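User: Batch of two.

Assistant: Item 1 of 2:
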Amino acid sequence: MQIAPKGEQARSNAALPKARTLIEALPWLERFHGKTVVIKFGGNAMVDEDLKAAFAQDVVFLRYAGLHPVVVHGGGPQISAQLDKLGLESSFTAGLRVTTPETMDVVRMVLAGQVQRELVGLLNTHGPFAVGMTGEDAHTMTAVKRYAVVDGEQVDIGLVGDIVNIEAGAVKALIADGRIPVISSIARGADGHVYNINADTAASALAAALGAEMLVVLTDVEGLYKDWPNSDDVISQLTASELEEMLPTLASGMLPKMEGCLRAVRSGVGTARVLDGRVQHSLLLEIFTDEGIGTMVVPDDDTTVLGGLA
C-alpha cells in the first residue's frame, strides 16, 4: 500500500472544509431544485461595485444549481443622484418618493436605462442568462394611483402606484427558456399613466403570482430587530401573525419590506427572507447553509425551526 507524502496529506486535509460546505448544501439543493426564487435587489448592494459583482455571482450560481431566480430592482440612490444632477427636487412623504411627471421621466430612464442594464451586464458576464424588462412590458404589472397617509389624511404624492394585477406569462416564458428575468419596478395603470412602484411591493406581488418558493429582500440591516433601537438582536424566524403584530412598531424604511414579506407568505409563497445585502454572498449563505443569516417569515401553520431556509 502506498502512503501519500506528508505534504500531500496536508493539502488534502486543508481541502476538507470545502467538501463539508458542499455537503451541507446538499439538502437545500435537493429541496429547492426547480423552485422559483424572487429576489428584491436594493440597498448598498446596488452601489458598491464588489457587492454588485458578488450578487451577480450568487444569482448565476442559483441558476446553475437548478433554481429559477427572478430579480426585481429599484434604484433609489441612483434616482436621487440623477435628480440632483438635473436640478430637480427630490422629496419623500411617509417614506414614498413624491413623483411628478418630470421625476417619473427620470425614474424610467434610471431604472430601465441604467440600473437594469448594468445588472443585466453583470449577470451576463457568466453566460447568456439575464433578460431585462419592466413592469410595463407585456402588461406584467398593472397599477393604480397610491396616496400617502399623513396624520390620518390622504396626501397626493404624484405618480406613485400600487400593483393591482400581475400577468406573469412573459416572466414564466423567460424562466422556461432558462433565462434570469431582471425587472424594473415601474408599471402602467389602466388610466394610461406610468407609475413608480416600491420595489419591495413589486417583488412581493410577483413572488405571489409566480407561486415562488421564496421571496428574498436584500437591505442594509442584518434582519428584523427584536427591539430596535434598544437592542440589535435579530429575529431569525417568526410567523406571519407574529409579524403582523409587529408592523405598527416598525420604522418607515423597514415597513414596506416586512409588509411585502407578510403579503407574500399570506399569498402562498413558501417563505420570505430579509437579508443584509452588505454581506458578500449573503444569498448563498442564507439558502445553502444550515444557520442562515437573516430573518425568515413563515406561514402560521409552519412548524419548522431552522436558521436556514424552511
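Item 2 of 2:
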Amino acid sequence: MGHGFISAITSKGRLYVTEFDIGEFFIHGEAREVDGEFQAVIVMRAKAPLTTVTTHQVEKDRWFKTVDAADTAAKDAAKALKTAVDSGALTS
C-alpha cells in the first residue's frame, strides 16, 4: 500500500477498514445510516494512551441514497485528508 497505510482491521477473515496515520490520530472513512439515508463520515481514533473516537461528517448536510455511495465518498475524503496532512496542511 501507499505511504501512510497503517492497518487493515479484519473481521471474520474479511478486510473491514484501512486506517491512516495523521499524527495524533488514526483515521478511516465509513458510511453511517440515519433514518434510511446515509452520511459519509471520517472516524478519528486517538492514539494510545487516549481512547477517544470521534466522527465527522464529510460534507455538512449531505446525505446519500445508498450505503455504497456514502462509503465511497467517506473513503475518498479520508484519503484526501491523509494527503493534505502529508503535504503540510496542519503545519504553520
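DSSP finds one helix and five strands in the chain.
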